[in-house]
Amino acid sequence: MIDIYNLCFSPEWAFLRFAMLVGVCLAPALGIIGTMVVTRRISSLAGASTHAALGGFGLALFLQRVIQLEWFTPTLGAVIGAVAAAVAVGIVSIYAKEREDTVIGAVWAIGMSVGLLFLDRTPGYVDWQGYLFGSILLLTGEDLVMTLILDAVIIIPTVVFFPSLLAMTFDDTFTRLRGIHVTILYLGLLILTALTIVLLINLVGIMLVIALLTLPSAAAACYTSHLRTTMLLSAVFNVLFILSGLLLSCILSLPSGPTIVVLAGIVYAASMAFKKYFAQ
Question: Alpha carbon of 251 to those of 30, 84, 88, 218, 254: distances in Å?
Fold first, then answer.
């Protein structure tokens, strides 16, 4: 059993305290973007961006080791891949006649396949398992700085444009009639979602990123129908899931990412039951 005093002050638990700090800092971004993803029902589109990020990650690692492009980091490659996929699918869904689910499925499959092909051709050892399943206990100060920047990039536009986001979320036609550029707002939301996904991959890995992005917000939506309140409650849920998941994973010697997501899934199932049987 973990002693609370040692957990708070002992040097041997510094990595766990730092992981908790990053998780708490990431919660506001997850609360806002997760709520928008759930409310707009674009989790499949977010999934396409997630797997396209793997394509960018593999390409960047290949270019670093084979062509010696040291500045092209895996994180930069993941950002480019995720954002490109989000914008491409968004534009296709808005302007083209192609079925959106077909395009999302294609981007999903091709993005991950391209990443795996580049990783296979990259010389040296490649820790693709860590990218797939996350390494929250190995985060660095750079991850914390990027998380704080992401919070600012997401929170500031949300506060400034909240009335427009609220209108777009529930009625695109009404929003357009008010003279609001729905297309720009929608593409901006997709880009912010892609950036959040890239950072979240460090937390739980590509295999679980969509679960942690959607489950807390879906659980929060069971208790309130107001967008602002759902965002706040989702952020609180994310803090609780990340902290309790990290503690439980250390106590039981379990992988941290799956533990966090399983806890989120249990709370979501309980919230659905509460909404169906007790909140009427």
Answer: 26, 40, 43, 28, 8
In Å, how far are 120, 154, 208, 241 from 32, measured between CA atoms?
36, 8, 18, 16
Residue with structure tokens 């009404």?
174
Residue type for 179, please? Answer: G
Decide if 183 contacts 130 (C-beta within 8 A).
Answer: no
Q: Of 32, 18, 25, whose CA–CA distance to 136 is shortest? A: 18
> In the chain, which residue ranges form alpha helices assigned H by DSSP?
4-9, 14-40, 43-66, 74-95, 100-121, 128-133, 141-160, 162-170, 172-177, 182-204, 209-221, 227-252, 256-277
In angstroms, how far is the first alpha carbon of the chain from the final one?
A: 41
At residue 130, the pLDDT reads 66
Give the position of tokens 């973007």.
33
- Which residue has tokens 């609001």? 180
* Domain at 4-273, CATH from 3.50.50.60, 3.40.50.300, 3.40.50.2000, 1.10.3470.10: 1.10.3470.10
Q: In this predicted model, what pLDDT tens digit does every residue of 34-63 receive, in sequence order?
A: 998 888 888 877 788 888 888 888 888 888
Q: Whole-model pTM?
A: 0.85
Whole-number Å distance between alpha carbons of 239 and 73: 29
**Nearest residue to 243 (alpha-carbon basis) of 84, 16, 44, 2:** 16
- Please give the Cα distance from 126 to 123 (Å, whole number): 8
Amino acid at 104: I
Residue 12 gets which letter from DSSP? G
Amino acid present at 6 = N
Amino acid at 238: N
Six token digits for residue 260 = 């966090």
What residue ranges of the chain have pLDDT lower than 50?
none
